[in-house]
Amino acid sequence: MTSLRIGTWNLLEGGLDGTDASRLERQIDLLAELDLDLLGLQEATWRHRGAEMLHHVAHRLGMTARVLTPSNHHACALATFVRERPGVRVVGEAHDTSGSWWHALAHVEVDVDGIGTFDFLNTHLAPSSEDQRAREGQQLGLYKNCRAILLGDMNAVPATDPLPSPDDTDDGRAHGKRDRRAAQAIARAGFVDVGASVGDTTPTVGHIEPGKLAYRCDRIMHNNLPVEHVTHEVISCVDNATGSGHDYLSDHSPVVATLQFGAAAEKAA
Q1: For residue 205, what is the DSSP state?
Q2: Strands of the sheet with 105-112, listed across from one edge
Q3: What local confidence, expressed as pLDDT, does residue 208 receive?
Q4: Contact by Cβ (8 Å): 222, 197
Q5: 3-state secondary structure of 207
Q6: How far apart are CA 89 and CA 94, in angstroms?
Q7: Which residues form a coiled coil (predicted)?
Q8: Strand bridging mode 38-42 / 78-82
Q9: Could you report the per-residue pLDDT of 28-81, keeping only the tens digit for each?
Q10: Model pTM greater than 0.90?
Q11: At what angle do helices 22-32 and 50-61 cross, to 10 degrees?
Q12: What distance in Å separates the CA atoms of residue 259 and residue 227, rounded to the nearest whole number?
């Protein structure tokens, strides 16, 4: 049975604290333990060090294919990685950095023996505008008839998870995070939210500090792929480094999913 392990993580300022990259190194340590085939990172805010840091992360993780897609705002680039090996290869790229995205949509075409070719999409939806997010969700409807894996920081609640209570936070900005329009548009395009499919509503953001809106912001989805079985896990990112100044490696938790493809996938390929 063919399977892929997939991860997504918003690094929080690229894992950097000023010029100090020690938090990033500990983030890479955590990622290395996850044995991922596909990885999408958001907030790869490495600026002038972008190429250097991209290749460093790829080298440490054994990811032979890597690409840094620039963001339209805040230098929040997207870093996308594929562990190429016999039977797994990158065959194309079609990134969208047009102004219709607040950040961008990274798009890598991957071919896997037993599965065939599919689009691997990494994104970071708009942070504060509900209307912008809704438009971005609608744009992902263009992949309705495509074989795709989509992941990233969706910056609002999922389509079907219970809505966090307004009493859970006094942060006025959190009101917009309850807007489901982007998630609903993505669901209408046929994307299956792996976390929702297994009933895992573990928050990936907002659960660290009191008074923040805790919800499942970071998600992995698939569309038009003959997936037989999935697993889903939100990974703890407690930072145990002495004197690090952080209790957590990021304000977001990493998410990992395993997709297993059976005989139907092999026949289709």
Answers
A1: B
A2: 88-93, 105-112, 116-124, 148-153, 218-223, 192-193
A3: 86
A4: no
A5: coil
A6: 15
A7: none
A8: antiparallel
A9: 999 999 999 999 999 999 999 999 999 999 999 999 999 999 999 999 999 999
A10: yes
A11: 30
A12: 6
State residue 175's pLDDT score.
74
Residue in this structure with the two tokens 């939806």, named with its chain if needed: 125
Q: Which domains does the chain have, with CATH numbers?
A: 2-268 (3.60.10.10)
Instruction: Tell me the residue length of the chain.
Output: 269
Q: How far is CA 269 from the centre of its chain?
A: 26
Show the tokens assigned to 176.
């917009």
Torsion over CA: 265, 115, 59, 66 (sign): negative
* pLDDT tens string 62-75: 999 999 999 999 99
Q: Which two tokens stand for residue 20?
A: 């100090």
Amino acid at 146: C
Q: Please count the other Cβ atoms lying within 10 Å of the Cβ belonging to residue 217.
A: 24
Contact 224/190 with Cβ under 8 angstroms? yes
Distance CA 225, CA 265 (A): 8
57 near 65, Cβ under 8 Å?
no
